[in-house]
Amino acid sequence: MTAPRALFNLNGATVAYDGAPGRRLSEALREDFGARDVKIGCNAGDCGACTVLIDGEVVCACMVPAARLKGARVETLAGLNGRDALLERLQRAFLHYGAAQCGICTPGMLMSALGLLRHNAKPSEAVVMDALGGVLCRCTGYRKIIRAVMEAGGFALEVPPAPAGKAVGTSVVRVDGMPKVDGSERFGDDVAPANCLAARVIRSPHHHAAFSFGDVDGFAAAHPGVRRVLTAADVPGCNCFGVIPPFADQPVFAEGTARFRGEAVAAVVGEATAVEAFDDEDFPVIWTPWPAVLTPQEAEAPGAPLLHETRSGNLLTGGLVERGEVEQALSAADAVVEREVETSFVEHAYIEPEAGYARRVGERIEIHACTQAPHMDRGDMAAIMGLESEQVRIVPTAAGGGFGSKLDISLQPYIALAAWVTGEPARLAYSRRESMTSTTKRHPAVMRVRVGASRDGRLTGLDFFGTFNTGAYASWGPTVANRVPVHASGPYFVPHYRARSRAIHTHCAPSGAFRGFGVPQAAIAQETTFDELADRLGIDRLEFRILNALDNGIPTVTGQVFESGVGIRQCLERLRPYWREARETARKVNDGANGARRGVGLAAGWYGCGNTSLPNPSTIRCGIRADGTVVLHQGAVDIGQGANTVVMQIFADALGVALDSIRLIGPDTDITPDAGKTSASRQTYVSGNAARLAGEALRQKILRLANVSDAADLQIGDGEIILTEAGGERRHVGLGALPIERDDYALSAEATYDPPTEPLDDKGQGVPYAVFGYAAQMAELEVDMALGTVKLIKFTAAHDVGRAINPVLVEGQVEGGIAQGLGMALMEEFVPGRTENLHDYLIPTIGDVPPVETLIVEVPDMHGPYGAKGLGEHVLVPTAPAILNAIRDATGAVISKVPATPDRVRAAIVAAQARSQP
Ligand code: FES
Ligand code: FES
Question: Is the pTM of this model over 0.90?
Answer without folding.
Answer: yes
